[in-house]
Design brief:
171 residues; alpha+beta; His-Me finger endonuclease fold; two-stranded antiparallel ribbon; two-stranded antiparallel sheet; 4 helices; binds zinc ion
């Protein structure tokens, strides 16, 4: 049992964020529920999807990444409601549309997609998965599977990407 420095309760290790390097040990001595209560800013945040202004705890925060002031870092500005709607849509699209094989081309950047970035042989201009199920956020329509870098928006400078993106996005 470990004592939470904040609520002073004696708790099992499962009540704490685990230390990845020392299994069975808490990463720090405040429990997860104290972390949720006291380590998330009390500010209002605008959701980028539904545009509601909501208290910070409506947004996902990293459990073990902190800002300089000791408060937990926010993962993104999609509120809990929008995030769960989004994951339900993606799960459904993934069931209905099978991901392509690896070692085939990404339809946006036209590079060969390896499963992991470590799999890409030296000196080869390729990209990596896992394949990302892409859909139109307004119409919810399935667009197709694209590589990870294209999905997070770091392939934007590539000529092939610029050629393919407008039609892909229906612009
Ligand atoms: Zn506590
Ligand atoms: Zn929202
Ligand atoms: Zn790509």
């Amino acid at each position: 049992m470990f004592t939470c420095s904040s609520c002073k309760l004696q708790l099992s290790v499962n009540s704490f964020d685990a230390d990845p390097l020392n299994p069975g040990q808490p990463l720090y001595y405040f429990c997860m529920s104290c972390s949720d209560k006291y380590r998330i800013d009390g500010v209002m945040v605008n959701c980028t999807v539904c545009h509601r202004s909501l208290p910070s705890h409506y947004f996902q925060h990293y459990r073990t990444r902190f800002k300089k002031d000791g408060m937990r870092l926010r993962v993104n500005r999609n509120c809990k409601d929008c995030s769960s709607k989004e994951s339900a849509i993606v799960a459904q699209l993934k069931r209905a549309n099978k991901a392509p094989n690896y070692l085939t081309k990404c339809p946006l950047c036209e590079r060969i997609v390896y499963e992991k970035s470590e799999d890409i042989p030296d000196g080869i201009n390729a990209t990596n998965g896992p394949w990302q199920c892409d859909h139109d956020h307004n119409t919810k329509k399935f667009r197709g599977y694209i590589c990870k870098p294209c999905n997070v928006g770091v392939s934007g400078d590539l000529a092939a990407y610029q050629r393919n993106a407008p039609a892909w996005k229906g612009e």
